[in-house]
Amino acid sequence: MLVANFNKWYIPEDKVCIDESVVPFIGRLVFRQYLKNKKHRYGIKIFKLCSKDFYTLRYNIYTRKEVIRETDVSYKIVLKLMEPYLNFGRTLYTDNWYSSVKLANKLNQENTHLVGTLRANREVIASPSNNNVVILKWRDKHDILLITTKHSDQIIEIQKRDTIIKKPLVVEDYNTGKSYIDRFDQMSSYSSPLKKTIKWYKKVAFDILLSTATVNALSLFKSVTKNKSITITTFKEEIIKQLLYKLNVPQPIS
Predict the structure, then answer these.
(1) For 1-41, how does the pLDDT look when each residue is reduced to its tens digit (9 = 90+)?
(2) Single pTM value for the model
(3) Sign of the dihedral defined by the CA atoms of residues 159, 150, 121, 21, in that order
(4) Where are the alpha helices (DSSP H) in 35-121?
(5) If you compute the radius of gyration of the chain from its CA atoms, what whole number of angstroms results?
(6) Digit-coded pLDDT (tens) for 192-228
(7) Residue 178's closest CA among 51, 46, 17?
(8) Is the pLDDT assigned to residue 109 strictly greater than 90?
(9) At CA 74, angle to CA 10 and CA 87, rounded to 5?
(10) CA nearest to 212, candidates 231, 228, 232
């Protein structure tokens, strides 16, 4: 398992999220993946652990070496990415590929909450357990199954325009926590540095250095300066200007 860490100087808050993204690559590669729900369907699958303000904490390249008999890949990946952040009372948000009662029980032992959706054909438990694991079914446009070690079946009211909507608290909390990955993907998609190349490791290096690290830098910049209006494109332009200044390269007159 190849894991990159971006957390040396950053301590995440209590909510973190795991999901996957893809670095586009159409060449020959043993561990190239097909992800039908992604914008770029063929490429190198990346598992990411993200926190608030689209900051990536850990970055794992999926090479299929994680496939071990009697061990779920998703279970192993979660524990590996979460390793530095266990036993601090944090909450992990996952989708139905990662979530399971087995994972919830394991994280409970590590003083870590799990909130996630479930596949209908994966679990059959449907009530609170004696170890604080709750599985809840909620009917919205379709049935939604969720697993949580943090919530009960509490219903809250949310004002949406002129209508009050009732939904379980766990659903609202899940939507907030799961949005961290979506925000990162949105930020990294602007002015993407990825170019055509036959070398897969160059693609990954560009993604780490020019995409993930840059978006992380913007997250820290906004947090420190309280400048919430700066865009990722403007931020990248300012970085380039500073690099040109350091190299004594004349800048174009605007």
Answers:
(1) 556 666 655 677 889 999 888 888 888 888 888 777 767 77
(2) 0.83
(3) positive
(4) 73-82, 101-109
(5) 20
(6) 777 777 788 888 888 888 889 999 999 989 988 988 8
(7) 17
(8) yes
(9) 45
(10) 232
User: Cβ distance 149 to 104 under 8 Å?
Assistant: yes
Residues in the chain: 254
Strand-strand pairing, 91-94 and 113-117: parallel
Tell me if 212 sits within 8 A of 23, measured CB to CB: no
Which residue in this structure is represented by tokens 């890949």? 73
Given CA atoms 80, 82, 83, 87 in this order, what sign does their dihedral have?
negative
DSSP structural state of residue 98: T
Q: Compute CA distances 114 → 111, 125, 168, 195, whole Å.
A: 10, 16, 16, 37
Look at strands 113-117 and 134-139 and give their pairing: unpaired
Question: What does each C-alpha distance from 9 to 12, 37, 177, 217, 224 come to in angstroms?
Answer: 10, 33, 22, 12, 13
Cα 81 to Cα 205: distance, rounded to the nearest angstrom: 19
First to last CA, the chain: 46
**Cα–Cα distances in angstroms (integers) from residue 199 to residues 24, 57, 244, in the given order:** 12, 25, 28
114, 98 Cβ separation under 8 angstroms? no
